[in-house]
C-alpha cells in the first residue's frame, strides 16, 4: 500500500484564555481531497474522497489510501459509502459510474455478466446508499430509488410510486426495516408494500424543500434537515420544526444530520458569509442546544458537508478538513489510566486551595490540583499504617488524616498533618484509640470524636490547648459524626441521640424525633437546614431537620439503590450518590431529578461513597472498586490553558537511553491528551513524526537511523516537552 504522505494531524490550538476541557477535544485530520462519506466497521474508519478510499485505524494511528492505481478500485471519485450487516462495504463510484462491494480483500464491481437484470442507467446519477437488515442494497438517485437484492435491480421512480420530484438526497433504514428517503418533493417512507409521501401540498410538512439529510432516533422518530429551512422531527403523526427563529440552530443551511448512540442530534450548518450566516456544528439533546464554531473550536471555516458517529461516541466531520470531536464529558481515573495508587477510594476532600485529596484503601494518598498529581504511598516514617479513618482540612488548606487498625498506638502515631509540602505528627490525645470524625472550624479550632477504653469523647484543640468533653457512659453508643453550625455551636451525632456543645458547655439533647439507624453523614445545606443520612436496616435514607423535627427527604428513588453520599454543587443543586443496583447518582435542581446509572451512562459501577466539588464545579466521586469519577454537565474543567506544572509535567522519560533503535517514551500523562511527537537529528531535520492519542507510553522505532544524538519534542495542549536520546549501533 502506498503511504498517504499528505495526512496532517493538527494538534489542538486552544485560544488564549480558554479553559482546558478534559475529554472534550477537536482533532483535525485532512488529506487535501474532498471527503464525501465516512463509515466505520470492524476493520477501522473508511472515508470516501475525490482522491480515493482512505482507511484509518480506530485510534487514527495508522492509515492508507486505496486508489485506482494501487488496488482494483474502479475509480478514485467516491460518492457515498455504507456498511452492510456483515461489516462489508458498499460504495457508489463516480467516473466510472458503478456500484462496488468490498468484503475486506478486494472490490467486486457491478455490473457483471452474472446479474439477472442489467444495471439501470440511473445508477449513473446515484447519490446515496444504505443497507437494510436483509442485506438488500438501496440506492438514492436523481430519478428515484434503486433496489439491489444481490442478483437483480428494481427501479422505483415517479412512474410507479406516488412520489413527485423523486430526486433523492439521503436514504436510510429504520428499526422496522422501512426505507426512509429525502426527496426534493418531501419525505418518503416505504415499508416494502406501500409508499407514504409527505410534502407541503398534501400534509403538514413544514419546509419548502425536501429532506437533504435524515436519521432515525431510538424511539422511531424520523429527524431530518432541509436546505434553507432547519431541522424537524416526525413521529408518524406530527412535525416538530426547529429553525433559527425558535432555536439556537446556527444557520438555515443544514448540510448533515446524524443521531449518536446517546440519542443526541448533531447538525452541521453551512456558513453563508454573504448572508451573514455564521454556520457551525449544533448539538441538540431534545431540550438544550450547544453550538460549536470558530469561536470555541479550531475550525477554519464552517462549511460542513459530512458528519458521522463513531463507535467510541466521537463525531467525525468535514468542512475544509476532517475533524474528530470526542464529546465525552465523563472521566474515570483508575490505576490503569492515572497515578491513582488504588481503585478502592475511601475518602475525598477539597481544600480552599482547590487541592483534591484522595485516600485509597491500603494503597496510599493522592493530592491532585488541576493537572498536577502527587502520591504519598504507605511509608513507616510518615504513615503508621495504611487504613484511613477520617480526613479534614483547615481554612489555611492544611490537611489532616487519621488512621485506624494501627494497634494500640497513641494518636501521635495515628494523626498526621500536611501543610505546604511537609508532613508532621499531631499528638493531641495520647489516649485515643480511634478517631471517627474530625472537622476544622473557620476559627481554626479542631474538633474530633474519638473512642478509647473510657468510651467516646469529643476533643477540641485551640491554640495548643486541649479540651476534652467525655460523653456519659450510658450514652456513648456510636457517636461518630460532628457538625459545626457556628464557631460556638458543635453538634455530635450518634445512633439514637446527639450532644450539643455550645460555648464550651456540653448538653445532652434529643434533636426532634430522632431517626432510627446509625448516622452515616451529616451536612448543613445551602438553605441552612441540617441534613442527615441514616442507615435504616442497611438501606440508607436522607432526613432533614427544620429546627424542631426530622422529616424524610422526598426523592423518587434510584432503581432500588441506597443513598451512600450527598452534597450540593456551587449552584445549589443536590447530588445523591448510591450503592446497590450497580451504582450511580442523581441530581436534583429543586424541581426535577436527573438519574445517572451504570446501565445508561459511561460511569463505573460500585459503591459511590464520597462526593466533593472543586472550584470549577466538577463533581468528584470516590467509587469503591471503581476509582475516581469526575463529572461536570458543562464539561470537566481542570485548569487554564497554562496550568501550573511540576517537574513531572514538564519532562518526559525515554528508555533505554542510549538505545540501539526502539525507544519507549513515557509521557507521564495523568489525563489522556492528543499530542504530536517529532524526532530531530543533530542537523535539525525531522526523521520521525507520530501522533499520540492519549497513551502514556509510546514506542518510537529509530532502527533505520544512524548513530548519534536525537531530540524528541512532544507538543500537546499543556505545551512543549523535550528529551535527548543517544542512538548507538
Q: What this model shows, in words?
A:
The protein has a 5-stranded antiparallel sheet, with no helix packed on it. A hairpin with a 2-residue loop joins strand 4 and strand 5. The chain has a domain at 649-727: Sandwich (Immunoglobulin-like), CATH 2.60.40. The protein has 2 helices and 66 strands. By secondary structure, it is mainly β.
Q: Going across the major beta sheet, what is the strand order?
A: 1-3-30-29-28
The whole-angstrom Rg is 32 Å
**Broad CATH class of the domain at 649-727:** Mainly Beta
* Main beta-sheet strand count, sense and barrel state: 5 strands, antiparallel
Mean pLDDT: 75
Number of helices: 2
Q: Helix- and strand-based class? A: mainly beta
Strand content: over 45%
Give the tally of β-strands: 66
> CATH topology of the domain at 649-727, which one?
Immunoglobulin-like
- Which percent bin holds the helix content? under 10%
Uncertain residue segments: 1-24, 407-412, 640-650
Based on Cα principal axes, name the global outline.
Answer: globular
Amino acid at each position: 500500500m502506498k503511504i498517504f504522505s499528505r495526512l496532517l494531524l493538527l494538534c489542538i490550538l486552544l485560544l488564549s484564555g480558554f479553559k482546558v476541557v478534559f475529554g472534550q477535544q477537536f482533532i483535525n485530520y485532512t488529506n487535501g481531497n474532498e471527503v464525501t462519506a465516512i463509515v466505520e466497521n470492524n476493520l477501522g474508519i473508511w472515508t470516501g474522497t475525490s482522491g480515493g478510499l482512505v482507511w484509518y485505524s480506530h485510534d487514527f494511528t495508522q492509515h492508507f489510501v486505496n486508489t485506482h492505481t494501487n488496488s482494483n478500485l474502479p475509480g478514485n471519485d467516491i460518492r457515498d459509502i455504507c456498511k452492510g450487516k456483515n461489516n462489508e462495504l458498499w460504495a457508489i463510484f463516480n467516473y466510472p459510474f458503478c456500484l462496488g462491494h468490498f468484503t475486506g480483500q478486494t472490490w467486486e464491481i457491478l455490473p457483471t455478466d452474472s446479474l439477472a437484470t442489467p444495471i439501470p442507467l440511473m445508477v449513473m446519477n446515484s447519490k446515496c446508499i444504505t443497507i437494510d437488515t436483509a442485506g438488500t442494497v438501496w440506492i438514492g438517485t436523481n430519478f428515484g430509488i434503486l433496489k439491489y437484492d444481490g442478483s437483480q435491480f428494481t427501479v422505483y421512480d415517479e412512474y410507479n410510486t406516488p412520489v413527485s420530484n423523486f430526486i433523492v438526497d439521503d436514504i436510510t433504514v429504520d428499526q422496522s426495516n422501512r426505507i426512509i428517503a429525502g426527496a426534493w418533493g418531501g419525505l418518503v417512507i416505504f415499508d416494502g408494500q406501500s409508499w407514504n409521501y409527505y410534502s407541503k401540498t398534501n400534509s403538514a410538512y413544514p419546509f419548502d424543500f425536501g429532506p437533504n439529510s435524515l436519521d432515525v432516533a431510538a424511539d422511531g422518530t424520523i429527524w431530518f434537515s432541509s436546505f434553507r429551512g432547519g431541522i424537524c422531527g416526525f413521529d408518524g403523526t406530527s412535525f416538530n420544526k426547529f429553525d433559527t427563529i425558535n432555536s439556537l440552530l446556527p444557520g438555515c443551511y443544514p448540510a448533515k444530520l446524524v443521531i449518536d448512540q446517546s440519542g443526541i442530534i448533531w447538525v452541521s450548518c453551512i456558513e453563508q458569509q454573504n448572508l451573514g450566516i455564521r454556520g457551525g456544528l449544533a448539538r441538540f439533546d431534545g431540550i438544550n442546544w450547544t453550538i460549536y464554531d470558530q469561536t470555541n473550536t479550531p475550525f477554519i471555516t464552517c462549511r460542513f458537508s459530512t458528519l458521522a458517529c463513531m463507535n467510541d461516541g466521537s463525531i467525525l466531520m468535514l468542512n475544509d478538513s476532517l475533524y474528530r470531536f470526542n464529546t465525552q464529558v465523563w472521566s474515570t481515573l483508575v490505576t490503569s489510566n492515572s497515578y491513582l495508587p488504588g481503585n478502592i477510594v475511601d475518602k475525598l476532600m477539597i481544600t480552599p486551595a482547590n487541592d483534591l485529596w484522595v485516600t485509597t484503601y491500603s494503597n496510599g494518598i493522592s493530592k491532585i490540583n488541576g493537572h498536577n498529581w502527587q502520591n504519598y504511598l504507605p511509608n513507616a516514617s510518615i504513615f503508621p499504617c495504611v487504613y484511613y479513618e477520617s480526613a479534614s482540612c483547615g481554612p489555611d488548606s492544611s490537611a489532616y488524616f487519621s488512621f485506624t487498625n494501627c494497634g494500640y498506638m497513641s494518636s501521635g502515631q495515628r494523626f498526621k498533618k500536611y501543610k505546604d509540602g511537609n508532613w508532621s505528627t499531631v499528638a493531641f490525645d495520647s489516649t485515643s484509640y480511634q478517631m471517627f470524625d474530625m472537622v476544622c472550624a473557620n476559627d481554626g479550632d479542631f474538633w474530633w470524636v474519638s473512642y478509647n477504653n473510657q468510651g467516646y469523647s469529643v476533643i477540641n484543640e485551640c491554640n495548643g490547648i486541649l479540651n476534652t468533653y467525655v460523653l456519659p457512659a450510658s450514652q456513648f453508643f456510636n457517636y461518630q459524626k460532628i457538625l459545626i453550625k457556628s464557631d460556638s455551636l458543635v453538634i455530635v451525632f450518634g445512633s439514637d441521640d446527639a450532644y450539643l456543645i455550645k460555648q464550651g458547655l456540653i448538653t445532652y439533647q434529643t434533636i426532634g424525633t430522632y431517626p432510627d439507624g446509625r448516622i452515616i453523614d451529616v451536612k448543613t445545606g445551602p438553605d441552612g437546614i441540617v441534613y442527615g443520612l441514616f442507615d435504616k436496616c442497611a438501606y440508607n435514607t436522607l432526613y432533614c431537620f427544620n429546627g424542631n423535627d426530622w422529616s424524610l427527604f422526598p426523592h423518587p428513588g434510584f432503581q432500588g439503590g441506597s443513598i451512600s453520599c450527598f452534597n450540593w454543587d456551587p449552584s445549589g443543586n443536590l447530588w445523591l450518590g448510591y450503592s446497590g443496583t450497580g451504582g450511580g447518582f442523581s441530581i436534583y435542581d429543586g424541581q426535577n431529578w436527573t438519574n445517572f446509572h451504570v446501565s445508561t451512562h459511561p460511569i463505573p459501577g460500585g459503591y459511590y461513597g464520597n462526593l466533593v466539588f472543586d472550584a470549577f464545579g466538577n463533581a468528584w466521586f470516590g467509587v469503591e472498586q471503581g476509582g475516581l469519577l469526575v463529572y461536570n454537565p458543562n464539561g470537566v474543567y481542570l485548569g487554564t490553558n497554562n496550568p501550573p506544572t511540576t517537574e513531572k509535567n514538564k519532562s518526559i522519560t525515554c528508555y533505554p537511553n542510549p538505545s540501539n533503535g526502539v525507544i519507549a517514551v513515557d509521557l507521564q500523562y495523568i489525563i489522556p491528551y492528543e499530542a504530536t511527537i517529532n524526532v530531530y537529528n543533530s542537523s535539525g531535520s525531522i526523521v520521525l513524526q507520530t501522533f499520540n492519542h492519549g497513551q502514556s507510553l509510546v514506542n518510537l522505532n529509530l532502527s533505520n537511523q544512524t548513530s548519534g544524538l536525537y531530540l524528541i519534542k512532544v507538543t500537546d495542549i499543556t505545551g512543549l516537552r523535550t528529551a535527548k536520546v543517544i542512538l548507538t549501533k
